[in-house]
């Protein structure tokens, strides 16, 4: 029928690349941009099917995040604004690897039947498409649109260049029935930031006025968007570098959160002039954030303030508000609601951060790498804070808890407006508005870090001293087949190949405070090795010897 011929004719324009097998990994599909046309077209089809199936707005983001500028990728944002439902991932793989139009159409028909997707095109559904600043993005957006419009009733809405978290935010907002444009995102961020600043005990310290933050935009979309956000903020001085404008540097080349976190050196255009200043780095699509300090004029080494430390800062602040709130007693002398606060990390979290968080009495759990796992776990709490060490993370508030907070603010403002409890409830609500509820978001992350530092009256040095990172080393080993390594227990134990875990353990016990694990990357053809120990030399040596076992 109509649908079938539509698919056959459009797919014949997007022949798949020969001899490559693509897989929808932790970050969707990622590859050299030159081979992605057919994949992106097919993910367009998938997104359209998902939209019809859920009768909701779906998002498509074209980005390869922190990877090199010649790469690109595509991922799907589900109706909640989160990652594509995991039970659709195998279908994504199957579609991407279909040999020819006939097979593709057959696979789609089979899936549609299986999932009982009603493809009558009667009710139209919308797919929001956005891309980062990669030059290949423009033609890939076209391919995505062709895929989308091959499904009857599916309509693509091109939002141009956005950060990844912005797109996820838009999808989430649209499915809540809000008519939003991308300016609403900036309005919500700036007004909730203002709200937090207004609630600082004793107001902003006068010395804060010329206390600046310098942000490395990775020569990508984040720098550009931050420039815009800045114009809507008061009481925060931000200098943006590597904003990607005016023919400056190359995306992610010697810049950005991934570079800074892995290499632990200053990014391009930072140097001796920045000694002691609060600096931050975004990644190429602005969903990761790390801070850093340049400690001395004579070296390009930095003190990294990573995702674990951002997590710790957020946790302290949230915990403080909760303990203020818990002093609120109702007329019967009861505190009527105990908020469940949970912290979610991965095995890459620095051991010192986990120790610190546990010491604060917080509940810490571990999931495998990949935001979808952390996000899912964090969503089990009233307030769930998750972060990957590399700077991807956010704070999730349950709807139930938000409703409770809202009623508290009304009740409290009747009886005790201006009370500490009232303010704490307002702060938590402002945090829930500021921090992206869909995915990790570097721009909202920067604003929350800045608001909390002002609230605490802390310098970046004071924040960095919360605990001292254990020395660590991360290596990657190129392998023929990364699927040979299979892990369990939140990736801390390798169950295959046989004997590899025992050999790793035998190395690890040689080092005081040693901890080491291996896992296959979900985004590159490598096995990653992570090691931690009491000295840098020991961590390096442990990582190297385990890398040799993998090779
Ligand atoms: P892989 O390649 O699976 O390790 C990397 C990061 C993840 C996550 C994804 C998605 C590390 C060790 N891994 O995944 O945390 O950010 O990329 O971009 O940083
Ligand atoms: Zn990213």
Automatic annotation (TrEMBL):
Q: What are the required cofactors?
A: Mg(2+)
Q: What is its EC number?
A: 5.4.2.3
Cofactor detail note: Binds 1 Mg(2+) ion per subunit.
**What family does the Swiss-Prot or TrEMBL record give for this protein?**
Belongs to the phosphohexose mutase family.
Q: What does this protein do?
A: Interconverts GlcNAc-6-P and GlcNAc-1-P.
Q: What is this protein called?
A: Phosphoacetylglucosamine mutase
Source species: Pyrus ussuriensis x Pyrus communis
Q: Does the keyword Isomerase apply?
A: yes
Q: Which residues form the Alpha-D-phosphohexomutase alpha/beta/alpha domain?
A: 54-88, 103-175
According to its UniProt record, which reaction does this protein catalyse? Answer: N-acetyl-alpha-D-glucosamine 1-phosphate = N-acetyl-D-glucosamine 6-phosphate
Involved pathway(s):
Nucleotide-sugar biosynthesis; UDP-N-acetyl-alpha-D-glucosamine biosynthesis; N-acetyl-alpha-D-glucosamine 1-phosphate from alpha-D-glucosamine 6-phosphate (route I): step 2/2
- List, for all copies, the residue spans of the domain called Phosphoacetylglucosamine mutase AMG1: 306-458
- What GO molecular function annotations does the UniProt record carry, in alphabetical order? metal ion binding; phosphoacetylglucosamine mutase activity
* Gene Ontology annotations of biological process type: carbohydrate metabolic process; UDP-N-acetylglucosamine biosynthetic process
